[in-house]
Structure formats: C-alpha cells, structure tokens
C-alpha cells in the first residue's frame, strides 16, 4: 500500500492520474472527456486529477476531499495507491490512510516550496510519514517545468527535506529517493528522462514507476519470509484463532439486505460464498461478489490485498474501522464477554500500547501529555476513536487507554505478521505524541 500525501495544489491527483493513463489503465476516451469537461468549467489543467477526484464537489472546488484508491499490478504484486486530501481541514483522513500504508509518496510543489515548508503542511506531512513507521519514501519534486528544471531548486529542496528527516531521531525510513517531475506533462513518471534532453540532462535517476516496481518486487520477497515466520509462530495458535483478517475502509452503498464495501485483507483467503463475522458488532455476513483494486472480478483472493468492491449480504449497518474475521458461527449476534479474543483480533475497551517511539519534542510545545486522565485520539487500521489515558506502567513502558465503547483491534504477535493492523498512533491537540503497537494485556 502506497499513500500519496502533499500540500493542497501540489499536484498529487494529477500525478497519479497521469501515472494510470500512461500505464494504459485509463481509456483514452475517458481522459479526452475529462479534458473537454474540465475546460468548460475553466479547470483544464485538472483533467488528469479527475481520474482520482471523482465526486462533483472535488471537481468543482479543485481539491481532493476523500481518500481515493486505485491499483495496478507488478508481477504477482498488486500495488494500491491511496490519494489523500492536502487541505488542512481533511488531515484526519490523510493521517488514517498513512497509518495503513507501507510506503509513501510526498508530492512537493517546487514553485511554492519555501513558503509551504516554513508555514504550510509539508513538515506535518513528513511527520505523518515518519510517525507512521513507513519504510519507503519517494519525494516527488513536481512542477519542475515551471522553474525550467533548475538543478539548484531541486538540490535546495532535497537538502532541506533531508536535513529535516535527519534531525528526527526516531525515523525508521529505510529508503528515500528524490525525483523531479512534471505531473501535468507526464515527464519522469513511467519513462526515465532521456539524457540528451536539454531541460533535465543533469538527472540520471529512476522514474516514479521504476521505484514503485522495485518496492513491489521487494514486497513479494518479504511477504514470503513473513508468511514463513507466521506459519512457524505459535503465539496465538493454541487459542481461539482466526486465519482471515480484514478491515472495512469504505461503505460504498447499502440496501435493505445487501451492502457494498471496500476492504483491506491483511491475511487469509476470501472466497465467494464465505460466511464471515464483523467485529465488534458480532454479526455474520456472506460474501457475494469480489472486485479487486485493479477492477478484476474474482472468485477467490488472498491477503494482503485491497478489495475495491465487496458485495455482502447484511441488514445491519457497517462502518469503516470494523474488522472482518473468520465466522464465529455459534456466537452470531450474541453479546460477547469483553475482552473477547479470536486471536490476533480482540474486542475490548482497554487498549494497551507498546511504544515504538515517543515524540521527544513534545515538551517544547508545552503539551504535557503523559498524565493519566488526559484525552487523546487513537488511530489504528481505519479506526479513529476518542480515548483517555488510564495509566503508564513505567516498569515495562506500557500505556493503557480506555475507550467509551468496545472496539475491535489487532494484537501484535511475535512474528509481526500483522504489524500494519496492530500499529497505533496516539494524537493530542493535533500533535502525534506516541506511535506503537497494540498488545495483549499481560
């Protein structure tokens, strides 16, 4: 999963739209239609952005409002792109998408970089990426065509971003690269800049697609290792256990007896006809249709994977953040004893967090947060929920939070197979104070 973040008007949706057009995933007639329609309302440069900005309000305002996802295939790996809003009013949506991702693309408008780096959201987006514990970062320096592909501008941005990241001592990013592009003209997106081109002959690195391709190939290799580790791991298998884990990311439509949803499958196999349980509400659903992120209709799919459209039989309201697990057939619609475990998933109202890191610079903002009784926002998989800090166990450095209602969470196990779903971000007053894993109370 790759999350695309950046300041409003940096060109995120245009960049991703042009990528999908150049990959041949969008019919030429569609982009011609978008060009005609965008010109009619005086937004001709937004035609490629409309591939991701699908709702009328987004197109009218010229800004991304909703997180939009589309996928493409690299060998046996489906790469899912999450295009996020850049406006400050929609920061929670952007942050929630970042928590789920494994890699990030930060899109920077080189024409307005200094102002937005000093006073805008670029630093905040970098903190999202770093605090989300993502492994790969592609910094796309966009609109280079407006600055005549000036290498000094490129180097200045690269230096400032690199220095900012280097000064954050908890940064876990393994790979970072900087790529100059023109999203509007589709330069350096799926084809490398030709060395004899006068405008950017100084750049000798890869294009965006080549980087994504390499990340996907590494992911295929790592997934096999993780799967082997998971099969060897016995930390949960002696208990009530679920092979299938997915989270609901969006409710597309709903009728009296049928619901269409988008989900991310973390582990396990999904077949048409499967009966599954939705937690924490404990209701049974039946899978009726599966459409993957790349638009393919399939009868079976295996996680980890993004399912763009899943039609299920359900007459009970479902919400983003609900978890889907193997069917708890003998407990359907019954009230479960809390905490309830179907490992590694749990339903509880006390969340125990093992920190990956704690923000060292919090005290500089006079935000004294690590005091029991304080209120926080918790972000995990696609859930956002209010909580109160109950206690801090200083002996083993465990933070305990209490939620007003029961929630379904994924617990971290020794093999780390579900590291993305068990990852949690704790925020207070719009500031990230803690990143960690949800663990079982020992």
Automatic annotation (TrEMBL):
Lineage: superkingdom: Eukaryota
Keyword entries, A-Z: Elongation factor, GTP-binding, Nucleotide-binding, Protein biosynthesis
GO MF term list: GTP binding; GTPase activity; translation elongation factor activity
Tr-type G domain: residues covered: 1-224
Pfam families cross-referenced by the UniProt entry: GTP_EFTU
Chain coiled-coil ranges: none
Name of the protein described by the UniProt record: Elongation factor Tu GTP binding domain-containing protein
Lineage, highest ranks first: Eukaryota, Sar, Alveolata, Apicomplexa, Conoidasida
């Amino acid at each position: 999963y790759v999350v695309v973040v950046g300041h409003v008007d940096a060109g995120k949706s245009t960049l991703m739209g042009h990528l999908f057009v150049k990959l041949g995933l969008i019919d030429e007639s569609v982009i011609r239609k978008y060009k005609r329609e965008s010109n009619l309302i005086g937004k001709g440069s937004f035609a490629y952005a409309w591939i991701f900005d699908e709702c009328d309000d987004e197109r009218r305002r010229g800004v991304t409002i909703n997180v939009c996802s589309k996928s493409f295939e690299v060998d046996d790996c489906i790469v899912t792109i999450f295009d996020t809003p850049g406006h400050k009013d929609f920061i929670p949506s952007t942050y929630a998408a970042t928590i789920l991702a494994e890699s990030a693309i930060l899109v920077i408008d080189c024409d307005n970089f200094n102002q937005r780096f000093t006073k805008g959201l670029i630093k905040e987006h970098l903190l999202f990426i770093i605090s989300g514990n993502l492994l790969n970062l592609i910094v796309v320096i966009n609109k280079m065509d407006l600055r005549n592909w000036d290498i000094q501008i490129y180097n200045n941005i690269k230096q400032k971003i690199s220095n900012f990241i280097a000064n954050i001592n908890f940064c876990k990013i393994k790979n970072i690269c900087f790529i100059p592009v023109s999203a509007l003209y589709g330069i350096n997106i799926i084809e490398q800049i030709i060395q004899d081109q006068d405008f950017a002959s100084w750049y000798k690195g890869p294009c965006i697609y080549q980087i994504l391709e390499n990340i996907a190939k590494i992911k295929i290799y790592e997934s096999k290792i993780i799967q082997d580790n998971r099969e060897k791991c016995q930390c949960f298998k002696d208990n009530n256990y679920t092979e299938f884990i997915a989270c609901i990311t969006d409710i597309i439509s709903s009728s009296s007896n049928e619901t269409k949803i988008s989900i991310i499958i973390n582990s396990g196999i999904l077949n048409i006809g499967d009966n599954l349980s939705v937690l924490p509400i404990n209701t049974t659903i039946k899978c009726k249709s599966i459409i993957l992120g790349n638009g393919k209709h399939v009868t079976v799919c295996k996680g980890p994977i993004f399912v763009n459209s899943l039609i299920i039989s359900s007459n009970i309201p479902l919400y983003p953040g609900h978890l889907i697990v193997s069917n708890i057939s003998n407990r359907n619609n019954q009230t479960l004893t809390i905490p309830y475990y179907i490992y590694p998933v749990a339903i509880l109202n006390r969340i125990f967090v093992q920190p990956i890191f704690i923000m060292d610079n919090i005290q500089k903002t006079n935000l004294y947060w690590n005091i029991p009784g304080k209120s926080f926002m918790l972000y995990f998989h696609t859930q956002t929920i209010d909580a109160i800090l109950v206690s801090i166990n200083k002996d083993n450095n465990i933070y305990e939070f209490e939620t007003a209602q029961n929630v379904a969470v994924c617990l971290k196990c020794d093999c780390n197979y579900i590291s993305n779903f068990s990852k949690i971000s704790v925020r207070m007053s719009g500031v990230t104070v803690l990143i960690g894993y949800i663990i079982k109370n020992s």
